[in-house]
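User: Fold this; tokens only.

Assistant: Input:
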Amino acid sequence: MDAGATEADAVEGVHDGESYSICLDYPTMSDITCTRCGQTREGLASPPFPTELGQRILGSICQVCWKDWLKQQTSIINHYALDLRNPEARRMLTTQTETFLFGTVAKS
């Protein structure tokens, strides 16, 4: 199942003598082989950013490594007192994201 797929479950029951069935659709996460750790694990449910980098992360980074990055990101923001309203700070954080997750920065 791809990362954008949904899985359906049905909830069935009886209320006031009438039977009913409700279909619940929810997104599922597929297993991926993570490019950071090399393990086959559950991927993200959706891209973390609405960009090409977000799509790259969705297709190749597992949830475990993504959570590791979120902890590292917090440390970086605090250590450098980054103001993410500043475009230069966002560029620096994006570079750090790519380096942490992929080992290198993609060429633009």
